[in-house]
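batch_manifest entry 22 of 60
target: nitrile hydratase
source organism: Trichocoleus desertorum GB2-A4
requested by: lab member K.T.
priority: normal
notes from requester: please return tokens only, no post-processing; we will run our own comparison against the previous entry in this batch. if the run fails, retry once and flag.
--- input ---
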Amino acid sequence: MTENIDRETHSAARVRALESLLIEKGIITGETVDKVIEFFEKDMGPFNGAKIVAKAWVDPTFKQRLLEDTPAAIAEMNFPRGMTGAEGEHMKAVENTQEVHNLIVCTMCSCYPWPVLGLPPYWFKDPTFRARAIREPRKVLQEFGLEIPESIQVAVWDTSAQIRWFVIPERPMGTEGWTEEQLAAIVTPEAMQGAAKVVVPT
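--- output ---
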């Protein structure tokens, strides 16, 4: 874990240096950087995915449409521009159940459904995670603090330029009668990646 943090800190420092160099040479401006950051803070991010999951939890017919034709179902919702761009062109949802737990990974690089999950975390891009998630997913999930019983199948989905997967996690017990807004507030990016379960705050 410490090694990953050190590598992420090193990568962040390189990004800042590159950003400063590009601004200095006039290739981009500080305003350009601010607009990109604002785009991912306000328009594209895990808050979109959380709304989709919450709607799927309370509306079974929507969930079925989401599983059958993910882009079409998402298009029904009042999201900002660009949901089909920025790596959202070919999104596909899979559902966690009492029989199957899903995990997404990108074995080739770091393809990711940005519109619904935001920017990928560092560990998702890490070559070690990518290799081990395919080879020993149950053990990797265990290291994330997620114990999956042997009776439950673990399905790993290799997201790519052709299909970008995301997970509809299981709805936690104790949320009966909650509004979509309340449900969306407890859905995390990790749960939509299959690396965690949604839990009710205590």
